[in-house]
From TrEMBL:
Region (Disordered): 79-105
Protein name: Cytochrome b5 heme-binding domain-containing protein
Chain ranges passing through the membrane: 106-127
Protein source organism: Penicillium arizonense
Cytochrome b5 heme-binding domain boundaries: 4-80
Any one annotated GO CC term: endoplasmic reticulum membrane
Length: 137
């Protein structure tokens, strides 16, 4: 079997046992049967997502390059979507993480400006208030 083999969600879902375990990561299909006993994160987590799209579960852990190399070796095909199938999970692949991290930095920058502006406005208001109080005395 090769990457050109296509599996529908229905076909993949049938491989959901410890003795026959397929996972989907980034729309590729991996046969994890031989790896399930060796997984450093335990067999339970793999069985939980057996036969399903586990892209988010896989990416959430922040797996190492070594883990991704193992994954490459388990590749058996790609997902063939038919109408009604779940959408691809959106977690970015590590290759695009530089752009997503820069956009999150930009988000932080905007947030920081907002904090400074609001903080400044409050300080200005407080200063005016105190001035007015002093003039009344
Ligand atoms: C076939 C797909 C997978 C492969 C090849 C794989 C491989 C690995 C490898 C090599 C590690 C050791 C740490 C590292 O190198 O990053 C690891 C750790 C881990 N994996 Fe996976 N993994 C897969 C899928 C999953 C999935 C779907 C989950 C779901 C939550 C998961 C959860 C974990 C956890 C929690 C650890 C950390 C274990 C620890 O540090 O105690 N893995 N995995």
């Amino acid at each position: 079997m090769s990457e050109s083999t296509e599996f529908t969600f229905k076909q993949i879902a049938e491989h959901n046992t410890k003795k026959d375990l397929y996972l989907i990561v980034h729309d590729k299909v991996y046969d994890c049967t031989s790896f399930v006993d060796e997984h450093p994160g335990g067999e339970e987590v793999l069985l939980d997502v057996g036969g399903q799209d586990s892209t988010e579960a896989f990416e959430d852990v922040g797996h190492s390059d070594e883990a991704r190399e193992i994954l490459d070796g388990l590749l058996v095909g790609t997902v063939k979507r038919v109408p009604g199938d779940p959408e691809p999970q959106s977690k970015a692949a590590p290759a695009s993480s530089s752009s997503s991290s820069s956009s999150s930095t930009a988000g932080f920058g905007v947030g920081l400006y907002a904090v400074i502006l609001i903080g400044g406005a409050i300080a200005y208001g407080a200063y005016n208030y105190l001035q007015a109080q002093q003039q009344q005395q």
